[in-house]
């Protein structure tokens, strides 16, 4: 390209970004074991350990003992929309100390090799380390991990971040997948995990939970005020209609489906949705 030719003519060189290494495991506890092993080496890659708001939030008014995942997501989004989350705001210009994690200096006390910090003194942090750092330094571990993702050479994620299309579009949207290296820990679990990911259990308690979520959403809508509600994609009328659909569906499950439950082919769910909630291809 012209830019590359100009750089070559001027003697400048453009450093190529190495392919991302994405390490996936079933649980965060297994990922933490990997981080501990990494900490015992000289290697200090730019890395990110991804998790949910529910796992990473340290804001005492957002994450309380009784808060659900949806409560935390809603509270987080509200504060950040108003730029009132001091934990996220404190990330501006934030640099973690090299001793944020135990043994961050690495085996043998290595120094920077001048190649972008691969063997530098940046801390190697797992989820527990970032939670501790967030509470002590008053910064948000969730958004800190997202910031680290931008330049990460090593990305540690649970399986579901790779199997879930929405997670790939959101949490992993900034990943350069070209020439990326995927490593699956305990890959013999992939078949069962893929099967579980493509299946689901539908229980009465799940529908009851949906009804409760709609009620909480209505409460958040009222809390945000009529002006904010009018500008948003969700209206109170729509929530009332949605709750009515769930109530009808809950009654259908109690009266029309086998009491003992059962396993069915995937097509069966369309029959259930059509009869129980009047949801079809035409109106979905």
TrEMBL record:
UniProt key word Nucleotide-binding: yes
Renumbered residue ranges of the record's region Disordered: 96-119
Keywords assigned by UniProt, alphabetized: ATP-binding, Hydrolase, Nucleotide-binding
Single Gene Ontology BP annotation: negative regulation of t-circle formation
Any one of the GO CC terms: nucleus
Gene3D superfamilies, alphabetized: P-loop containing nucleotide triphosphate hydrolases (3.40.50.300)
Annotated PROSITE patterns: HELICASE_ATP_BIND_2 (PS51193)
Domain of life: Eukaryota
UniProt cross-references to PANTHER family, sorted A to Z: DNA REPAIR DEAD HELICASE RAD3/XP-D SUBFAMILY MEMBER (PTHR11472), REGULATOR OF TELOMERE ELONGATION HELICASE 1 (PTHR11472:SF34)
Protein name, UniProt field: Helicase ATP-binding domain-containing protein
Source organism: Odontella aurita
Lineage of origin: Eukaryota, Sar, Stramenopiles, Ochrophyta, Bacillariophyta
């Amino acid at each position: 390209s012209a830019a590359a030719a100009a750089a070559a003519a001027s003697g400048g060189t453009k450093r190529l970004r190495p392919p991302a290494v994405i390490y996936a495991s079933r649980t965060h506890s297994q990922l933490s074991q990997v981080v501990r092993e990494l900490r015992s080496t000289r290697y200090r890659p730019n890395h990110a350990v991804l998790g949910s708001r529910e796992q990473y939030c340290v804001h005492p008014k957002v994450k309380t003992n009784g808060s659900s995942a949806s409560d935390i997501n809603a509270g987080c989004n509200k504060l950040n929309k108003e730029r009132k989350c001091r934990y996220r705001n404190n990330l501006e210009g934030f640099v973690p100390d090299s001793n944020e994690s135990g043994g961050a200096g690495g085996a043998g006390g290595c120094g920077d090799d001048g190649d972008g910090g691969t063997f530098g003194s940046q801390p190697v942090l797992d989820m527990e380390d970032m939670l501790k750092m967030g509470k002590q330094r008053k910064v948000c571990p969730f958004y800190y991990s997202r910031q680290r993702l931008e330049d990460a050479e090593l990305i540690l994620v649970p399986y579901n971040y790779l199997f879930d299309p929405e997670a790939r579009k959101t949490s992993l949207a900034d990943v350069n997948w070209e020439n990326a290296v995927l490593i699956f820990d305990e890959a013999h679990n992939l078949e069962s995990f893929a099967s579980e990911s493509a299946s689901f259990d539908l229980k009465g308690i799940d529908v009851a939970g949906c009804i409760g979520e709609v009620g909480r959403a209505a409460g958040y809508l009222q809390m945000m005020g009529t002006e904010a509600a009018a500008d948003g994609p969700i209206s109170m009328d729509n929530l009332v209609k949605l709750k009515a659909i769930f109530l009808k569906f809950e009654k259908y499950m109690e009266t029309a489906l086998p009491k003992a439950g059962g396993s069915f082919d995937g097509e069966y769910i369309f029959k259930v949705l059509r009869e129980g909630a009047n949801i079809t291809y035409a109106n979905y």
